[in-house]
Amino acid sequence: MEYPDRFDVIVIGGGHAGTEAALASARMGCQTLLLTHNIETLGQMSCNPAIGGIGKSHLVKEIDALGGAMGLATDLGGIQFRVLNARKGPAVRATRAQADRVRYKAAVRGLLENQANLTIFQQAAGDLLVDDDTVRGVVTETGIRFLAEAVVLCTGTFLGGVIHIGLDQSRGGRAGDPPSNALAERLRALPFRVDRLKTGTPPRLDAKSVDFSQLEEQPGDTPTPVMSYLGRRDMHPRQVSCHIAHTNERTHEIIFANLDRSPMYSGVIEGVGPRYCPSIEDKVHRFADKASHQIFIEPEGLDTHELYPNGISTSLPFDVQLQVVRSIKGLENAHITRPGYAIEYDFFDPRDLKHSLETKFIHNLFFAGQINGTTGYEEAGAQGLLAGLNAARRAKELEAWWPRRDEAYLGVLVDDLITLGTKEPYRMFTSRAEYRLLLREDNADLRLTEAGRELDLVDDTRWAAFSQKREAIERESARLKASWVQPGTAPAEAIAARTGKPLSREYSLLDLLKRPELGYVDVAHLAGEPVDDEAVAEQVQIQAKYQGYIDRQQDEIDKLKRHEATPLPTDLDYARVEGLSHEIRQKLAEARPETLAQASRISGVTPAAVSILLIHLKKRR
Ligand code: FAD
Hints:
Blueprint: E1 7-12, H1 16-27, E2 32-36, E3 50-52, H2 56-65, H3 70-77, E4 78-84, E5 94-99, H4 101-113, E6 118-122, E7 125-131, E8 134-140, E9 145-153, E10 162-165, E11 168-171, H5 181-189, E12 194-201, E13 204-206, E14 216-218, E15 242-246, H6 249-257, H7 280-286, E16 294-299, E17 306-310, H8 318-326, E18 336-338, E19 341-348, E20 365-367, H9 377-395, H10 409-420, H11 444-454, H12 460-482, E21 484-485, H13 490-499, E22 507-508, H14 509-513, H15 520-523, H16 534-563, H17 582-591, H18 596-600, H19 607-620
Parallel strand pairs: 1-2, 1-9, 2-6, 9-20
Antiparallel strand pairs: 3-5, 4-5, 7-8, 8-9, 10-11, 10-19, 12-19, 13-17, 13-18, 14-15, 15-16, 16-17, 21-22
């Protein structure tokens, strides 16, 4: 049958990409259908119940700055929050939250069900309606036809999914869920480049069988960080600790002795796995000289005894998994509640996509999430938001929108994927961004919320909160700039006591704040009233301290923009360009970019390297 209502946008798949895509499209006023296998698994975390971390929290905050759900769901479901790299510079600081799997999922579902213009329907999509190289709608596996202007495909690991536990295989999208084989076959018949990747998950443990006295406790941070710009601590459920355990030589011996029973090492799995999230057999094999690996023992939620041992993802047979777990101090009597497994799945070469995430071959069809070769909820959510908003813009006959590399990690992610493709599951790192100092997790709202408002993604509540914060930052920075401390006064003595150096002349509070040994709390009260909003104070402090570096980075961006179109001669001998590292020379020689802009987008080619190229070109003339 043909469904009587026509939609502007259909999103297939209710995982992390699909939920952000559907919400974005609906927020923009488009009639949106979210078609997914199972309403109970909306927002389900297939693997680790945690959101954020290095590079990833930047994406969560960007999704949040554009009105998305992931940050708020994390604040509603997070049971342990920490800021990683807290002692390092703000560019690499990253918030990470352990989430209660059930509460997180419930929060996502709540946001979806309360979103205007959004209809949810539970059924598997089996086919796409394609006519004249343009997608027109979707047919479910039971034959219901839904028509729409644009379709966003977010089917995760489900396309042609094969689960491996030891040498046993079964078909599945993830444990307990069916694969999407009909759709996978249909997509393989379209002109996309398809390949296989794999990922894995560890066995889960019963906390009642774990001896926590043998493990190191890791509490969350106090005060507890929040993830969303609209988040508040009182949204968080009860907070709990994680624990740390270690593998040992015995663990490694067991793994080595059973490698022939691993589908990875016996050649059964062909897909490439995530280099940065390897299985324990991979780690032990690759780092054979390491006597121990850390394992984070993380709670799966507040109402369950299940634990997630982060660091022992495996596809070894169950009997070996049990031996591995029980060889670890504190886990000698551990009971495994669910075996670990690996999954192989189809992904599409993201070089067949445009920056908007629309496919190059089928108009109005967008791909987002794990099917583009990425791994991680955050990477999926960020792409979902971008694909959803562009599908909505297509339905409204508006131009596509995407952020540049110097505006957002989302810009880096998409640009990396569509220009370079990927041979292994792609995850975000701060090192992938050339302009890390500009792209901090603390300023994602300042970078993107205004654009989000123009795109109709940001509602009145968020816009009001953001505008208020932005004005407060400007007001407070201006106040510090206009407030002076004179030598010989009580405030000057307070500064001398803090720094060990008397003030030689008059200083503004803003100049004092630039000193590395002084923070906002040290200077803001010395004249007038400090603000009591932590986020405002943090922003004023970061902007003051890093302004010099930030300005320099901005200059670099401006300079590069002026030279973006500069052609690189086809016969350029990169080996003779002085100052380039061997690795960069090799990459450039292989890729032979046509312009400086293209060169700058090759991963590992730094802005400094581009400047060297520019100087070299000038010398050649
Ligand atoms: P998913 O979250 O997989 O969501 C896909 C959704 O689409 C599901 O709701 C599904 O039901 C629905 N769907 C699929 N096909 C259809 C269809 N035909 N019709 C209707 N609905 C459909 N990431 C890490 O960062 N680190 C890890 O260690 C890690 N390990 C993982 C281990 C396993 C076993 C798995 C399965 C995933 C792992 N991931 C890991 C990846 C992480 O789960 C994904 O990156 C993330 O969930 C991708 O989000 P997504 O929205 O693209 O897809």
